[in-house]
Amino acid sequence: MKRPSTHLHQPDAIDIDQAMTPMIDVVFLLLVFFVWTASFQVIEQILPSELSSQLGNQHSTLTPPPIKDFEDVIITISYDDGRPAWTLNKQPIQRVAEIERRLAAIASVNAAAPVILHPQPNVPLEFVIQSYDAAKLSGFTKVAFAVNPK
Amino acid sequence: MQIPRYKSNKKLGFNMTPMIDVVFLLIIFFLVSSHLSKQENQIELSLPVAASADDAPNQQTPRVTINVTADGKYALAGRPIAAERLPQQFADVVAKEGKDLEVRIRGSRSAPYSAVEPIMLACTKAGIWNVTYAVFREAQQ
Fold first, then answer.
1. Which pTM value belongs to this model?
2. Which residue among B52, B113, B140 places its CB closest to the CB of A123?
3. Which chain B residues are within 8 Å of A21, Cβ to Cβ?
4. Do the interacting molecules here have an ipTM over 0.85?
């Protein structure tokens, strides 16, 4: 009489199937998670702007302010008819590239001079940041915003 | 006649597979929900562009992010807030977290400067000096 085989099924094949299923589950879950968290967002950067009290209008009442070799660099920004316009120490400028060029010339002499941006209330933030960026790129370290206290 | 002996090679015990599945599901659920809770604080805004921008440092300094929409409205921690309440709000945060605080202004590039001005004024009144602007780098445009 033939002895019945104890291998009624193929255990190796079944074990492989069973082992693959949870792995595929986990791989798909991880895939979904990473696709979701990527969320296709553009990475934001930051533009530091310290509201330093030394750049403001605080003057000591005991000692006179030190004599400055250079005056503050004051940039005003206006926005009329959908177009921005600048003045650099009261000299009108039409393009931000020109601002950057002139600021770079001043910065080559004294980059420590404070630059004060004075935007009009209706100026879009885009042009304010653009001007701030131009001052930073020119090499100035002290760039401040003028704020109208109400 | 010899009776065949079916000796199973399988060991008795807990099946770990469903438990691992559930644990992974829970991990992913909490990770995704925490990610979404971070996202909901950030309104989708068209930020200004700056070439001198730095990467946002992953520091432990407490940070308050204030969003300024194109029409000049504010949202603090995802909730709208009036300009008049900003000084008090910042003062409360300073009282809780200290003056070593970062205020990040996420302003739309179309927002008028008159909408950003009160934030800086409120920061100055509250004694906060660390103010940053969220921007995009030029290469990403």
1. 0.69
2. B113
3. 17
4. no
